[in-house]
Amino acid sequence: MSCGEPHETDCSEVLDHLYEFLDSEMPDIDRDKFQHHFEECSPCLEKYGLEQAVKKLVKRCCGHDDVPADLRAKVMGRIDLIRSGQTVPEHDVTATAPES
């Protein structure tokens, strides 16, 4: 997605890292770049607002459920693979292995 206007930070970069911004998981200098981008790019600001609303809704509706430790470990492992740039398996890594 792009608004068609030139920006210091490209729309695709902002949208690729939107959840890092939402979760405050990026350095302050990058947060400042993204905040500046949202101030001048209404399509990205709209997407940000939508994702922020969904995140709040999920937290409100599902935020009290305990996540099984093994599922959390599998999901965190997959996130680590993605962040490190490694190939992520096509199969569902959260599925339990068939019993022999």
TrEMBL record:
Pfam families: zf-HC2 (PF13490)
Taxonomic superkingdom: Bacteria
Ranges where the Putative zinc-finger domain occurs: 11-44
Name the record gives this protein: Mycothiol system anti-sigma-R factor
Cross-referenced InterPro entries: Anit_sigma_mycothiol_RsrA (IPR024020), Znf_put (IPR027383)
